[in-house]
Prior knowledge:
Number of helices: 2
Shape: globular
Structural class: alpha+beta
Mean pLDDT: 90
Helix content: 10-25%
Low-confidence stretches: 152-160
Amino acid sequence: MPASKGYERPAVTVDIVVVARRPEGQQVLLIKRQNPPFAGRWALPGGFVEPNEPLEAAARRELQEETGATPSHLEQLHTFGDPGRDPRGWTISVAYLALLGPGEAGQWRLEAGSDAREVGWFDLHDPPPLAFDHAQILACAAARLAEHEPGTKGGASQAE
Length: 160
């Protein structure tokens, strides 16, 4: 549609769920936000897509800028666009998932950067309170992983 119609346009963001299999279980990489909104809260790495930037390139850029992480594989997980998901205004986020191979996370030198105050690994199924709608994004990622890994928490073959 031509821009002359006057349609409102949302901002587009990317959020990245990085999951590592570790001896203590599945861990997710989170950042502590440095800036408002939600300054001081844990969140998934991510941010705004630059003009003319491909989505996956934006996800890789944001992840590297905020954490130093450079996963070999990213897959698109889901798109989130509920009104009110971001107090700054109407945003649509394309979430990506990186499931790390054995030892991949150990190759990185994680360091908080850009607008991240801290970076750390947390239990995928018991994260701290998260900013924005990131708990919903994390739940979507955990469900996707459980579909592909029977016997994991939430998987069909888990003992009750």
